[in-house]
Amino acid sequence: MIAEVRSLQDIPRIGDKMSKRFVEHFGSEDQALDAILAGDIASISEVEGIGQRYAISLIQDVASRVEGVNVTDFLRTRESMDVYEKLLDIIKEFAHTRYSRDKLHVFFPYPGSKAEKIMQIRRSVSYYMETATVLEGDGAIAELLPKVSQLNFKHQYPKVRDRVIITSDQDSYEYARKRFAGLIDVHFTRSLSEFIDVSRGFSQVIAVGDDYLAFDFPEDVEPEFITDLQDLEDFKVVPEKEIFAFSRNLKSLESSIKAVRLLRSKGIRFFDRMDDDTLELLASTLSLIDEDGDIVHGTDEELDRITSAIERLPSCVSESVTFVNDELNSCLEKSQMTLSGQDMLKVMNGSIELKDMLGKTLHKSYHSIIKQGIEKICNDLQLEKKERLMVDSLFPEDIMHPVEADVDSLGALKQYLIKSSQKRKFNHKREVSRILSSYRELSRELAREVLDFDVGFAIGSFACTYGLVMPAISTSTGIGFKNGRNLFLLSRHGDVIPIDYSVGENSFSPEDEMSKVVLLSGVNSGGKTSLLELLAQSIILAHMGFPVPAEAMEISLTESMYYFAKSKGTLDAGAFETTLTEFSVVADESSKFVLADELESITEPGASAKIMAGILEVLSENDDTMSIFVSHLSEQIMENTTCDIRVDGIEASGLDSDLNLIVDRSPRYNYVAKSTPELIVERLSKKTKGKEQAFYDKLRSKF
Ligand SMILES: Nc1ncnc2c1ncn2[C@@H]1O[C@H](COP(=O)(O)OP(=O)(O)OP(=O)(O)O)[C@@H](O)[C@H]1O
């Protein structure tokens, strides 16, 4: 049944309580739904009370509601599910992120009736196969992808302590308190003096309303007047919030940007929604902030000038004072003063101070030295006009010796510089924040796209590494391939002997050997199980829209696949019954693949052969079903049926010098191959000595 999923309530497994947790985790219902529909298992597993397993099954559930099909529609037995899961495990090794490892679970085999879906996935996977080929051997992308994760903008920014909103309007006050709760102080003032008092406690004052607009404020109070707070964007009031949110995601975003640049540089079209200019503006804006949410030093010349002036002010002033005093001393040492008789009389009768007379004489030199001292400070600190004027009052007008810098003037200059830097920083942050706030959604999408790229890229790299190809989908019932390689063996051993094989109608079938019901006989350890597994892998991958492990393959799509693996233990009567029950459903009209491995072990050989003959007869009645049964009892089975069943064989011709079986792993068509257990006995005999060898020789003599 196909159902639309428009809200969390549409998902039966999400009740009220769970729905609240989803909204809390993702920030809104839309975002939660978005994550579910996008198959973001990694993020969903982080919702309180949801683990990875639950997230996977939830996503598969939703997908099955949306697409009207679920994973067990095609994979009908536990063993077929095992093969699918083992395949996913191999593909997952190529994923660079947890997101993509988890998301690979959204891919599963579809029944042939969903051919359109399979074709759609094939197109996308083919693109990723090409991409993986282009990027093969490129270590850079593999380094970038693990650094990307979903963006999280939910971080709480700590309160900004040096900024305040002041208003004398009750409504604005209430509104501001609500909107900026916990972010900055909001004050309600009843008078201008109260306004000024509060303002003095903060370096940035945002005044809402125009009550005090017309007043002249003292120099140290410089409010920014805002008429309507509702129109004011967040970034203008607390730019730190946006910057902080981005700073928390900096690594992810920077790596995403580099990944996009890299892909585009290789001619790979990626994330068209964001053109190069938009991407570069984001990159350059991000380069202005650090991981703590601060503006990076060296990104704003004016701010750097002021900051450096603040830092160097005390040492620079003290150097200048030393300079002035040294100059003054040397000037005094070189000076002479001649007193006239008149002057002496004035000094004696107290109408003039000797010091004043000295001052008059030294006036010019003193001021020239002070001027040099001031120049030195201004130049060293690269001060600007208004700041220079403040330096003027650092040294006393009247002659003083030794000269000292005026503490109050020095404090005022420092305060002025600090305020300028805060103002500059605030404006700079506003600009950075303004740009970043316009990138919120796009950035989120960017990271998601890169993560989704990793999903596709994992599939592409898997295909590229194992040399997989897209199978041709054929309309006649059959599966056939050239140089097929069992992926489980390949991933374990690195190399396998390629196999050619075909069942049903396709261009790989030998003429007149197009039987759809086949018994696979042959030598122990010849590779029958491995071939059956290879068929299962190929059938599953082809129905997922994925490439298959062969040089070339043709396959027809079916509605389901049954894989009955070889039983591992001794089977009791219950298990025999269960197996028969499982088989009873195989006998319907739908198209399917049925793979069975040594079913004979379910009961004693004579009865097994009869049962298997019966099952194969039923299966052969369905033209759309392909059945491949591995058995050591092919001759007995054939004796029990008149049905046209083909027997293929994998045969060993002997033992090589290392006592390994010499086997042609590709089955011979229409050929009953002997199990040749005698070869195994021979091998054991040759590998042992003494009594043990004698035992094996005795067994050999029985053949
Ligand atoms: N195509 C191949 N290339 C290389 N090695 C293979 C191949 N097929 C099988 N083998 C090796 O042979 C071993 C035995 O294979 P497999 O279990 O498939 O044989 P079998 O015919 O099912 O044996 P039995 O009849 O004893 O169950 C495998 O574990 C693998 O190591």
UniProtKB/TrEMBL annotation:
Does this entry carry the keyword Isomerase?
Answer: no
Q: Name one GO biological process term.
A: mismatch repair
Tell me which species this is from: Methanolobus profundi
Recorded superkingdom: Archaea
The prosthetic group or cofactor this protein requires is: a divalent metal cation
Is Translocase a UniProt keyword of this protein?
no
The molecular function GO annotations come to: ATP binding; ATP-dependent DNA damage sensor activity; endonuclease activity; hydrolase activity; mismatched DNA binding
* Residues annotated for ATP binding in this entry: 522-529
Q: Could you tell me what this protein does?
A: Has ATPase and non-specific DNA-binding activities.
Family stated for the protein in its record: Belongs to the DNA mismatch repair MutS family. Archaeal Muts2 subfamily.
- Which key words tag this protein in UniProt? ATP-binding, DNA-binding, Endonuclease, Hydrolase, Nuclease, Nucleotide-binding
Please report the name of this protein according to its UniProt entry: DNA-binding protein MutS2
Pfam families this protein is in? HHH_5 (PF14520), MutS_V (PF00488)
Q: Which InterPro entries match?
A: DNA-bd_MutS2_arc, DNA_mismatch_repair_MutS_C, MutS, P-loop_NTPase, RuvA_2-like
Question: Matching SUPFAM superfamilies, A to Z?
Answer: P-loop containing nucleoside triphosphate hydrolases, RuvA domain 2-like
Per UniProt, residues of the DNA mismatch repair proteins mutS family domain are 515-693
